Amino acid sequence: MTGRLADVSARIDGIRQLGMVVNAMRGIAAARAQQARSQLAAVDSYTATIAAAIGRSLALAPAAARRGAGSRPCRPALVLFCAEQGFAGAFSERVLDAARASLPPAEIFLIGTRGVSAAAERGIAAGWTSAMPAHSGGLPKLADRIAEALYAPIAAGEIDQLDAVFSQWRPGHGVHVERRHLFPLDNKAFPLPVDAGAPIVNLAPDVLLSELTAAYLHAQLCDASLQAFAAENEARMEAMASAHHQIERQLSELEAKQRILRQEEITAEIIELAAGETASKTG
User: Fold this and answer.
1) The dihedral of CA 97, 98, 102, 106: what is its sign?
2) Residue 269: burial class (beta carbons within 10 Å; 0-12, 13-18, 19+)
3) Which of the two residues, 274 and 261, has the higher pLDDT score?
4) So what's the pLDDT on residue 59?
């Protein structure tokens, strides 16, 4: 009896320690998700500013520059934002499922250590990989590295179509996977300025448009990485909440069992003491 009670007590202590770890992971994920969400507004504002500048630059460019992408065969590439750490459910699997129709022939740029492992299990070979930063402050540098890896093959004509596949967190609905076209820009999506005044520029229109296109691509990569970072941490928060509920349920069951065993142990001791007292009187 004593051994069983000791085992249950040890199990309760172990689950309580596990609960502390789960709560800590939940708190860290919440802080990271909140920080990433707060930075999205700044990235959206920056993206809108670049988009407006592109619209003004197109007004200076020849009409041919405003036709957008042609109908020639494309050499596609995908930037996949998957999970960096565990305990996020099927986060990476959803992204890979959304990109499955394009695999192959698309060139894969894959972000997230866990995503690399999940892709390898499916036989998906990524041409370029990178870890997701631990904090959202490192995401602009990640966008720099992705863009740098993309510029050379784009300039060489090895890639002429680029999409990003990433997750967004929708309150009440969970993770939603989005596929966003990044390159070439659909120039028709950038409205021409309504005012008649032309901007003062110091660069040739085609050079200016090329520079703004690079800045716009970087802004879109920042936005996608922030969305994915926040969504992964939201998914981890949800997983840790489920684990917390499971821990609470197990603790309740074990504590009830502990009380029963303790009562049985006390009862056995009382019976033993009473029997000993009776035996001493009859002796």
Assistant:
1) negative
2) exposed
3) 261
4) 78
Q: In what order do the strands lie in the sheet with 174-183?
A: 128-130, 107-111, 76-81, 161-170, 174-183
CB 187 within 8 A of CB 58: yes
> Would you state the structure tokens that stand for residue 215, as one six-digit string?
């800045």
Q: Which residues of 78-109 are buried (b: 16+ CB within 10 A; e: fewer)?
A: bbbbbbbbebbbebbbbbbebbeebbeebbbb
Q: Which two tokens mark 112? A: 């997230």
* Chain centroid offset of residue 276 CA: 67
Predicted structure pTM score: 0.84
**Collapsed DSSP state (helix, strand, coil) of residue 127:** coil
DSSP letter, residue 84? S
Q: What three-state secondary structure class fits 271?
A: helix
- Phi, psi angles (nearest 5°) of residue 179: -115, 120
- The H or E element that residue 152 is part of is helix 139-155
CATH class of 21-192+201-240: alpha beta
Query: Burial level of 19, CB count in 10 A (0-12/13-18/19+)?
Result: middle
Question: Model confidence at 210, in pLDDT bands (50, 70, 90)?
Answer: confident
Under 8 Å between Cβ of 163 and 76: yes
Give yes or no for residue 3 having a pLDDT over 80.
Answer: no
Hey, where are the domains in the chain?
21-192+201-240
**Residue 240 DSSP SS3:** helix
DSSP states of 64-77 as a string?
GGGS-S-SS---EE
**pLDDT over 90 (residue 163):** yes
